DNA sequence: ACGTGGCCTG
DNA sequence: CAGGCCACGT
């Protein structure tokens, strides 16, 4: 019964767990205290509870305290019971049977009754008398008291239930709830109505402030959301719907929160949960939008980077289009060159990080505006027949005494069923015609995470061939994953963007060169992760495919002696190693072998046929020699062999004819002289071969 | 030693 | 077309 005990037990909520056996003794309260730990601490800290703790000494606590008492309250209750009862009896119930109670009060309790406390008690009791409003209170005596007690008990139970409910609230709410509950123990009698009222007001205020806070948060969310809307309102329709939905839901929540303040105490939790849900939804919305934007930006940046590098590469090597190429270039290709140049400028001018959907569109427009401006220039350049490679030896006299099916200004070479697409073609295609178009099956050429490959210097970019498709998929609209590791951007719920990549392996064989080159490593780590999370199926060619062979054969029309660097340049999708390189070299060696065999054969045939003048020998597209060669290197006959190759073939044939005529073939190494000549006749391989190929 | 090219063979 | 072998140049 000492007053120090309450304090002791008050702290026992934490200490008792560790050391004290009192926990067992005070089981009902204590166990609750453990569960209501935050509550207890709050009650200790609460001003109201402080007040109560003082006040409680002059009041009788409820016997049913276990329902709601916090540790301090419970302890107080237990300790103060007698004194409280006695004090109350002595003042309020003077005529009660236990009127002598004051004397029964513990000396400590009596001693504790300071003057101001007594004064306060008197004041409070006076107020209570008024508040209870029962003029018969005194007359009814015990019954009245029991009624009050019963009511308080009910209130206490209510409070406890509320308390339980409020424990689920966020902490700042718990605080107020705790404040509310912590004072309950003292409300054993009607005199608490005053403080109750008081506290009710405080609670109201707290709740109001909380509401304001929530509203503020809500507004912030909506503000940010709308801001983002304004920024990226390229897709107003879809997002607009979402916004409407959001607006509605939040609005309704808002209103409902406004309505019934008095009753909503027990609804606050649910309310907050709903709001949190809304907030979460907004956050998710933002996140997915961020993802979308990030992906777009990174893709755009990577693409422009790629174009930059392509041209940097080209210009650094002094690469230029060969005359044939210029002449032969289809208008489409000329456009693309102009576009590429423009793109170089544009990409350097444009901040990559700022390149967004709008930027893409505007740039694609620039492409076509500029292409018109550039194409005439390109045309004039193309008409000038400049040969940069070692000029044709003065054997030109040998050349055309024969009529050719094609004029010197050769008709555009092109693939019979498809013009080879440039990177920029694909880009332009994508940008101009939109993602709905597709380029046919494109193989997935994966970014290799291994940058130790020797070609990484020469080929800083690896190809990610992808077919880009824009779908109208909404958030949560999951695209079906395509077969064979097809790539979709599902799982990410990226609206408006879906990328599919290489559907079938067979397609990789057919056109592994036409690809959209993206510098995967120029992407940020986030975007790389994003790519992987997009499940993009990437796959760098470890070996040479039949498509590579075909490409090599077509390249042979331009170069008979390609250097390994050229090979690496023109097979960017191949992971080069010693074996691959030598294999490619071997291919060209074999090509040459066949070529020279044919030359020797036809030269000897000419001699057998009685040709006496080398000038009578020519190579046209009609000649047997050409057909044999074309059959070998261009079996499908879907590639228009450049005239230059015909010239070179004719020169080679003449060389053989002359050597054989001069009986130089008796020398075991008589061909070497011819090889020396022929190796100088190589021309540059069109850039189309670098990154793209026929379909 | 290594890369490259040519020749021969299968 | 690939493998083996050889020769040559660096």
Describe the structure.
The protein has 695 residues and is an all-alpha fold. α14 packs antiparallel against α15 (268-316) and α27 packs antiparallel against α28 (670-678). It has helices at residues 4-18, 22-25, 27-35, 37-45, 47-55, 71-91, 101-104, 107-112, 115-132, 137-140, 142-166, 171-183, 192-231, 236-259, 268-316, 323-328, 331-349, 357-383, 423-433, 455-458, 505-510, 525-533, 546-556, 564-570, 578-608, 624-633, 643-661, 670-678, 688-691, and strands spanning 462-463, 467-469, 498-500, 517-518. Helices cover 61% and strands 1% of the residues. It is rod-shaped, with a radius of gyration of 45 Å. It binds a DNA duplex (10 and 10 nucleotides) through residues 549, 561, 564, 581-583, 585-587, 589-590, 592-593, 669, 671-672, 675.
């Amino acid at each position: 019964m000492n007053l120090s005990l309450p304090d002791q037990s008050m702290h026992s909520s934490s200490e008792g767990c560790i050391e004290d056996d009192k926990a067992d003794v005070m089981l009902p309260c204590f166990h609750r205290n453990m569960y209501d730990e935050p509550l207890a601490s709050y009650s200790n800290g609460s001003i109201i509870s402080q007040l109560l703790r003082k006040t409680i000494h002059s009041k009788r606590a409820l016997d049913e305290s276990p329902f709601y008492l916090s540790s301090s309250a419970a302890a107080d209750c237990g300790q103060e019971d007698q004194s409280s009862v006695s004090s109350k009896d002595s003042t309020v119930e003077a005529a009660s049977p236990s009127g002598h109670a004051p004397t029964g009060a513990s000396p400590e309790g009596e001693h504790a009754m300071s003057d101001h406390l007594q004064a306060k008690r008197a004041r409070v009791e006076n107020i209570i008398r008024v508040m209870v409003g029962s003029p018969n209170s005194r007359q009814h005596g015990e019954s009245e008291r029991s009624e009050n007690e019963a009511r308080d008990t009910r209130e206490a139970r209510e409070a406890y239930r509320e308390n339980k409910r409020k424990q689920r609230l966020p902490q700042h709410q718990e605080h107020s709830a705790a404040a509310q509950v912590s004072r309950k123990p003292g409300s054993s009698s009607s005199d608490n109505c005053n403080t109750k009222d008081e506290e009710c007001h405080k609670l109201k205020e707290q709740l109001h402030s909380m509401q304001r806070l929530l509203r503020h948060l809500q507004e912030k969310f909506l503000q940010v959301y709308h801001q983002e809307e304004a920024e990226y309102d390229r897709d107003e329709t879809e997002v607009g719907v979402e916004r409407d939905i959001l607006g509605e839901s939040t609005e309704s929540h808002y209103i409902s929160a406004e309505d019934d303040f008095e009753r909503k105490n027990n609804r606050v939790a649910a309310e907050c949960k709903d709001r949190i849900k809304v907030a979460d939804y907004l956050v998710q919305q933002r996140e997915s939008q961020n993802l979308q934007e990030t992906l777009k930006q990174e893709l755009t940046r990577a693409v422009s980077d790629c174009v930059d590098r392509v041209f940097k590469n080209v210009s650094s090597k002094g690469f230029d289009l060969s005359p044939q190429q210029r002449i032969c270039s289809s208008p489409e290709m000329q456009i693309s060159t102009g576009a590429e140049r423009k793109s170089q400028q544009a990409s350097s001018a444009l901040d990559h990080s700022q390149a967004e959907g709008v930027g893409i569109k505007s740039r694609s427009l620039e492409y076509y505006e500029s292409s018109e401006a550039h194409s005439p220039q390109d045309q004039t350049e193309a008409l000038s027949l400049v040969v940069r490679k070692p000029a044709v030896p003065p054997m030109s006299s040998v050349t055309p005494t024969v009529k050719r099916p094609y004029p010197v200004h050769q008709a555009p070479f092109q693939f019979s069923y498809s013009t080879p697409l440039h990177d920029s073609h694909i880009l332009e295609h994508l940008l101009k015609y939109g993602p709905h178009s597709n380029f046919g099956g494109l193989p997935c050429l994966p970014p290799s995470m291994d940058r130790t490959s020797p070609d990484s210097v020469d080929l800083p970019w690896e190809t990610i061939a992808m077919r880009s498709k824009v779908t109208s998929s909404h958030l949560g609209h999951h695209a079906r994953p395509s077969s064979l590791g097809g790539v979709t951007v599902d799982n990410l719920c990226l609206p408006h963007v879906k990328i599919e990549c290489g559907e079938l392996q067979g397609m990789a064989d057919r056109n592994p060169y036409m690809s959209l080159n993206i510098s995967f490593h120029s992407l940020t780590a986030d975007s790389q992760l994003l790519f992987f999370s997009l499940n993009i199926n990437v796959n760098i060619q470890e070996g040479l495919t039949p498509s590579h062979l075909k490409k090599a054969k077509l390249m042979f029309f331009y170069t008979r002696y390609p250097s390994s660097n050229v090979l690496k340049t023109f097979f960017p999708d191949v992971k080069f190693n010693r074996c691959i390189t030598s294999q490619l070299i071997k291919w060209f060696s074999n090509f040459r072998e066949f070529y020279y065999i044919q030359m020797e054969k036809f030269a000897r045939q000419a001699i057998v046929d009685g040709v006496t003048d080398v000038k009578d020998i020519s190579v046209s597209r009609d000649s047997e020699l050409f057909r044999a060669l074309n059959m070998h290197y261009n079996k499908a006959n879907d590639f228009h062999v450049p005239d230059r190759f015909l010239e070179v073939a004719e020169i080679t044939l003449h060389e053989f004819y002359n050597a054989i005529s001069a009986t130089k073939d008796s020398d075991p190494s008589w061909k070497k002289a011819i090889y020396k000549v022929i190796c100088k006749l190589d021309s540059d391989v069109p850039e189309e071969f670098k990154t793209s190929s026929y379909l």
